[in-house]
Each structure stands twice: as C-alpha cells, then as structure tokens.
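for the writeup, i need someone to sanity check this before i put it in the appendix. the sequnce is what the collaborator sent (i think, or maybe the updated version? ugh). structure was predicted straight from it, no edits. if anything looks off just tell me and ill rerun, i have time this weekend
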Amino acid sequence: MLALLGSIVGLLGSLAPRLIGYFEQKQNHVQELEMLRTQGDFQLQMIQAGHSAKMAEINTHADVQSELAAFSAALRPSDVKWVDGFNGFVRPFLTLCFFALYAAVKAAQFAILQQDHSGSAATLLSMWGEEDWAVWAAIVTFWFGNRTFNKERGRR
C-alpha cells in the first residue's frame, strides 16, 4: 500500500510542475491579452484624437476661407462713386478719431501727473506702458501690413 501511495505521489509530483506551468502560462496569456486590449484602446483613442484634430483643422480652414471671401467681397468697388468714396473714408476717419481721443486722454493724464511737480521726461515715461505699445503696434501693423498684403495681391 505504501508503494502504491508512493507511486501516486510520485506521479502527482511529476505532474505538479506541468500543472503549475499550465496555470502560469494561462495567466500570462490573460495578461498579454489585457495588454493588447489596452494598447488597442490607446491606439484607437490616439486615432480618434488625430481625427478630431484634423476635422477641427479642416473646419477652421473652411471658416477662414469663408471669412476671406466675405472680406474680399466687401472690399470690391461698387461702381457707385460716393459709396466707394465713403467706404475709403471710413477707416482713416475712425483711425483719426481714435487718435484724437487717445491724444486727449494722454494729454489729460500728462496734466494730472504734472501736478506732482515731477520732470516732464519722467512723466512721459511713466505714461507709456504695455497697453500703449500694443495700441501702437496694432495701428502700425494695420496700416502698413495692409499695404504689404495689397502689394502681394497686385493692388495699391
């Protein structure tokens, strides 16, 4: 009986590593499948994100093209002299009005700051800040940048 028990234990003992190996391999396959599924999900998300970005780019490009078409249509002469003259007058007039208002505000600011009896140069320097540079850059870019684009298009 002891010999039979020893044979069964020996048989089970020799099968034990194979059974353990089988379960380990099964667990490894489950982990690999999970990793592949996770990688596939990640790749799908990346593809979807790329697709969304491309669609946003296409939509933005279409918006820009439609705005440029509308802007170009608005700049075409109407062949009515007074309408074209008024259209050419509006932007410079508004720019000059804004400049007059801006100059008046700066003059008032200068007068207020001079009341503390500081030097004129120091007052002028304290009045000119980042916002003033931004306004200056916007005006110069608008007027002179527009000329550059018109020269590229063959217009004056």
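The mean pLDDT is 79. Residues 2-75 form the longest helix (74 residues).
thx in advance!!
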